[in-house]
Amino acid sequence: MSNQEQRLELPQAGNAKEKVDKITTTPEGDSDRHEQDMHAFWHSSSHVLAHAVKRLWPETKLAIGPAIENGFYYDFDREGGFSTEDLEAIENEMKAISKANYKIERFTLPRDEAIEFVKAMDEPYKLEMVEALPEDEAISFYRQGDFTDLCAGPHVRYTKQIKAFKLTSVSGAYWHGDEKNKMLTRIYGISYPNRQQLEDYLTMLEEAKARDHRKLGRELELFMMSEEGPGFPFMLPKGMIMKDLLIDYWKKLHNKAGYVLVQTPMILSRKLWEESGHWDHYKDNMYTVKIDDEDYAVKPMNCPGGMIVYKSKPRSYRDLPIRMGELGLVHRHEKS
User: Fold this and answer.
1) CA angle 155-3-97, nearest 5°?
2) Is residue 56 within 8 Å of residue 174, measured between CB atoms?
3) What are the structural domains, with CATH classification, of the chain?
4) CA 170 to chain centre
5) Is 135 exposed, middle or buried (0-12, 13-18, 19+ CB in 10 A)?
6) Could you give the angle at the alpha carbon of 218 between the alpha carbons of 217 and 219, nearest 5°?
7) How far is 250 from 330, CA to CA, in rounded Å?
8) For the segment 104-150, what is each residue's pLDDT rounded down to a tens digit?
C-alpha cells in the first residue's frame, strides 16, 4: 500500500474506513453506456491527468476537472503553476497510468465522514465543495490505483480505455471564476479511445487555426484591432464591402418574412434599465455615463429600446403578429 493510501485510511473517523474498503465499481448495467459516452470518457481522462500531476508533484492541490464540449481540463493549485514545458512529463505519466489499467471504482460516504476523509487527503478545494453539500447527502468518490478524487461520475471502468490523449494548453483560471479568488492553473486536454481519432481531431484543429477569423481578418485586410479599442474591431474598406453585402442579405430575408426595421438610441436612461431589471442585475457589465447629472447606459442589448417602440402607440391583438427587427450596436463589459 502506498503512502497516499495509508494517509487516506482515517483510523480516527469511526466506521469511515470500513465503508471505504467496501469499494464497488460502476454497475455492470451502466458500464456500456458510460464507455460510449464521451462525456464520461473525457471526465475519466481528467482524473488520469490529476493522477499524473499528483504523482509528479504531490504537493499540488486539486480543484475541479470536468469534461467540456471538446475534451477536458483540470484546475490545479501549485506554487509556480505549470508551463507548457511540463506537459510532456505529465503526458508520459498519464501513459503509465493508462498502461497500468487501474479499475476505476466508486464508493460513497456520509457527508460528515466525507469531510473527515477529504481533510485527511489535505485537499482544501475538495473540502469546500463537500461542506457546501446538504447534510444528508451521500458523497461519492472515485478511486483508481493510488489516486482518489471527489466526484459524482460517471466514468469508464478502466484507465486502459483512455489510450490516446494530448494535453493542449495551459492557462490561468480563478477559483469559482471569481477574480477575487486565487488564480489556479488550468490544463486542457483531449482524448479518444484510439490514436486515429485523436490524430483526426488534432488535424481538424490545425485546419481551424488556418480559418481563424482573427488571422483571416488581418491577412485579407477585412478588419484590424488596436489597443486603443480593446475588443472593438476597426473595419477596413474590404471589410466594409463584405459587411454591407451581409447586411443587404439580412434585410432581404427579414423583408421577405414580413419584418419592419427600427433603430433605437445607443444610450438610454437609467430609468429604462431599472424598469427592465438590467440596472439591478447587469449593471457591472454595462458602460454607464452621467449626462446633465442623470445616469445613462450604453445599451447592452436591443430589447428594452424595442419595447419603447412597441408601446409608443395603442396596440390591438388584431395587429399581431408584429415583426420588428433592429441592426443595433450593443456593448457589454464582459471578459473575452
Assistant:
1) 35
2) no
3) 3-208 (3.30.980.10), 212-248 (no CATH), 258-325 (no CATH)
4) 14
5) exposed
6) 95
7) 18
8) 999 999 999 999 999 999 999 999 999 999 888 889 999 999 999 99
Which 8-state DSSP code applies to residue 72? E
How far apart, in Å, are the Cα atoms of 67 and each of 38, 40, 64, 71, 128? 9, 7, 10, 6, 21
Q: How confident is the model at residue 37 (pLDDT cuts 50, 70, 90)?
A: confident
| Exposure on the CB side of residue 71, measured as CA atoms within 13 A | 20
Give the span between the Cα atoms of 173 and 53, in whole angstroms. Answer: 17
In the chain, DSSP assigns E strands to: 24-25, 61-62, 67-68, 71-77, 104-110, 138-144, 147-150, 164-174, 183-192, 223-224, 234-235, 260-261, 267-269, 288-291, 294-298, 324-325
Q: What is the DSSP string of 23-38?
A: -EESPHHHHHHHHH-H
Lookup result for grid cell 490544463: 187
Question: 111-121 and 124-131 are packed helices; what angle lies between their axes, rounded to 10 degrees?
Answer: 170
Q: Which long-range contacts (CB under 8 A, 24 or more apart) does 85-92 make?
A: 86/170, 87/167, 87/170, 87/187, 89/56, 90/49, 90/52, 90/53, 90/56, 90/167, 90/187, 91/52, 91/165, 91/166, 91/167
Q: How many Cβ atoms are within 10 Å of 272's Cβ, its own excluded?
A: 18
| Out of 34-38, 105-109, 241-245, 264-268, least confident range | 34-38
Q: Which three cell numbers mark 252? A: 432581404
> What are the grid coordinates assigned to 108, written together?
460513497
CA distance 66 to 188: 10
Q: How far apart are CA 11 and CA 13, in angstroms?
A: 6
DSSP-derived 3-state class of residue 10 = coil
